[in-house]
Amino acid sequence: MTNNYILRRIRYTFDFNDKTMIAIWALADTVVTREQMSIWLKKDDDPDFLNCSDRNMAIFLNGLINKLRGKKEGPQKEPESRINNNIILRKLKIALNLIDDDVLAIMALAEMEIGKPELTSFFRKEGHKHYRKLQDQILRRFLQGMEMKYKKPATETSEEAPVEKTPTETAPKEQINSDVWNKPTS
Q1: Mean pLDDT throughout 115-142?
Q2: Is-contact 108 145, C-beta < 8 A?
Q3: Which residue among 10, 78, 108, 117 has the highest number of C-beta atoms inside a 10 angstrom radius?
């Protein structure tokens, strides 16, 4: 799975426009032009397609964390020069303020049932005896579940994404939508 595919899925899921996407990179102290971003968002078979580097993807995910959770004081975290599916899942989990049960619920929406021990193995450090490499299929299912949970119906589209605080909350949808950007950081 390419970084470009993941960028396109995140953009679609949260209905981010060009301005918002550029602003997300800016939140991670990086300037990206509309032309660069446009090339990264093109389909793989487009002649103008250019692969989004691991570093640029890491910067985008750091910016997404800053957008959804708020920027920490101090210097921006140095982005990884190499990322893998495990890092991408971890950064999305942080950005969306998810706990393990939330991640499992999102996976279940996309009909991917995994156990908590298997999930925690994806968040271990590489080299740990219980570390497990996250396969493309599982990340793809997580992205599908994320879309099912957070994608607004066409009549409600905007730049902001509806993020529920926990799967057990029963707040009205309008309340959840307005709370997403005002969520306290942990």
Answers
A1: 93
A2: yes
A3: 10
Residue keyed to tokens 């793809």: 140
Neighbours of 37 (CB within 10 A): 19
Q: What is the pLDDT of residue 172?
A: 39
What the block records as the tokens of 137 is: 């299929």
Contacts of 51 by beta carbon, 8 Å cutoff, 6+ apart: 2, 3, 4, 40
Look at the block and give the residue holding tokens 């066409």: 154
Contacts (Cβ under 8 Å, ≥6 apart) of 115: none
* DSSP-H helix ranges across the chain: 3-14, 18-27, 34-41, 54-69, 85-95, 100-109, 116-122, 136-150, 173-179
Mapped onto helix, strand or coil, the DSSP state of residue 79 is: coil
What average pLDDT does the segment 120-139 reach?
A: 93
